[in-house]
Amino acid sequence: MIARPFPKRLASALVPAVPYLWLILLFLVPFLIVLKISLSDPAVAQPPYKPVFDWNDVLGFLSQLDLENFETLVGDDLYLRATLSSVRIAAISTALLLLVGFPIAYAMARAPARHRPLLVALVILPFWTSFLIRIYAWVAILKPEGFLTQALMALGIISEPLSILNTETAVYIGIVYAYLPFMVLPLYATLEKMDDTLIEAALDLGCPPWRAFWAITVPLAMPGVVAGSLLCFIPAVGEFVIPDLLGGSETLMIGRQLWSEFFSNRDWPLASAVAILLLIILVVPIVIYRDVEARRLETRP
Amino acid sequence: MPPPLKSASVGAVRRSFSPWADPTATPLIRVENVTKRFGDAVAVDDLSVDIFEGEFFCLLGPSGCGKTTLMRMIAGFEEPSAGHLMLAGKSLAGVPPYRRPVNMMFQSYALFPHMNVEKNIAFGLKQDGLPKGEIAARVGEMLRLVQLEKLAKRSPSQLSGGQRQRVALARALAKRPKVLLLDEPLGALDKKLREETQFELMDIQHELGMTFIVVTHDQEEAMTMADRIAVMDHGRIVQVATPGEIYEQPKTRFIAEFVGDVNIIEGHVLGQESGLWRVGSNAAEAPLTIDDPDEVLNENQAVAIAVRPEKMVIQRERPETDAANVLFGEVWDIGYLGDWTVYRVKLDSGAIIRVTRANRSRFVENPIEWDERVHVSFAPDAAVILAE
């Protein structure tokens, strides 16, 4: 073996360290801070919680931490309902996204190769406008005197103004609209890689096209389906802006709850506890997915 | 039921098999004036051919000659722009691929990556809604046929190229189609494996009594396996004949050059004497005599004489027999291939011809060397005349 010069060895040791450093500084440390705040008590002070970390009295500091906020979360069924409602809304939205996104991704993957980059660009294009502006645009579309009502009334399809804004339906519309690229792009990536001759082989073996779609295309698109669904489900659970702007007062979501604990009630410790709860809710599906995936790869004979 | 093991050799059965020569025989597949256009490009041009039941039929041609398009039309992936395709007397027009009693083995094999070997083979049978027991029995039979019993539970990604090829074959055979289409079936295999598999394919075809249509650009493959070969060029069939006829009696210069090696000597017809054509050429001093009685030629017509390298004799001395055609030249290049030695001889006319000689003994005394003056001779019946 040839000994490499020291600077080179240092460089090759440092390069993998960069992502770790990044993750430690920007994910692990903030997480620990949030975790610590969630174990504290609210206080009328600056910062609005106690105890504050003190190098001279670490044990005293630790002894003041407790799980009181988590007990509140468990004790008050508001949080449980908000959580369940968030998961439900995120799950339904993800299903709708799959329903809308799959045909789009499929059509993109089947389009002539020279059109595909343009189609991908079009899917990404909405990102060039601010997320908030786009959601506000939906307010303008969905409100009772908005574009949608006007258009449908002009066409004579409805006679009464629609009351979609400030309902759960509006939240679904907003989430499906805002998250569509996150569903379409991973699906497109897997569908585009798929070998067309597999479908031909299925047809050749007596499988009609619609059945070939379910027997070949869908199973082979599964990695994209799972990736797209997770990319949509995870942020949708914690979504705050869309339910706040489009949803009604009864649209209960954990992200909204977190916001009001933090800004309205100024209860940082409870808000942090909600954040930790949200994290736990989201870690579970990720871990399950990874576990399932690992086992699937293992049991391949 | 697996078919009983063959009693006679494939070759013995094969020699007596020639339904195409029988005018009363009805073909299994009839291709009638079929044209296929893609935009302005004509892939298949007014092509007609009959393929008979039990035949091992090869479509041979360079890439882009339309052979794959023709096969895809038979499979149903493409519809002819004009003309008719008939299978067992019924028109195939408008019949989708999943309703045709035709199966295809794809060049890329197209094995379903999310199914194991067994499920891949069972796929077509499941589509027919066969009972489970029957599917299992048929899959077992196919696995035995291609000798993959032990790998039934493997996924395609865990197989070697040769094994994948067998799975693809088994999957295509499982439904017992009337016609099996094979698109470059051996293209992805290495040379040794390819040779073995050629004979295996022939055995399987014979055992199952199925009609095989093979698309290939490899003339050796076509020669070994086929009952008949259709040589294609520019969307047309230039010649349909047995491998022997294709090689020994090529219709055109394209076929002579595409199938095997050939030396072309340009010349013009001098006349006919006792059934033999006399052809003048500046490659030889004396007129050449060629025994190709079927050719109808006019005096002074420009022709090409095609002689296979192995049908020529290279020697220092002038050959004794008067009947032989003799050319003069000097040895330009020698290639020793082990079984054969290839001589490239530069004729006095400037043309370079190839002569091969089988190395029958291990040592040759005083072998022909570079730059030596040599005589290259060939018998009248060693050559064919190709009208230009």
Automatic annotation (TrEMBL), chain A:
Transmembrane annotation, as ranges: 20-39, 87-106, 118-139, 170-191, 212-237, 268-289
Keywords: Cell membrane, Membrane, Transmembrane, Transmembrane helix, Transport
The keyword Transmembrane helix appears for this protein: yes
Top-level taxon in the UniProt lineage: Bacteria
Pfam families recorded: BPD_transp_1
Annotated localization: Cell membrane
Domain ABC transmembrane type-1, chain residue ranges per copy: 83-289
Family matches, as PROSITE patterns: ABC_TM1
Similarity comment: Belongs to the binding-protein-dependent transport system permease family. CysTW subfamily.
PANTHER family: INNER MEMBRANE ABC TRANSPORTER PERMEASE PROTEIN YDCU-RELATED-RELATED, PUTRESCINE TRANSPORT SYSTEM PERMEASE PROTEIN POTH
Protein name: ABC transporter permease subunit
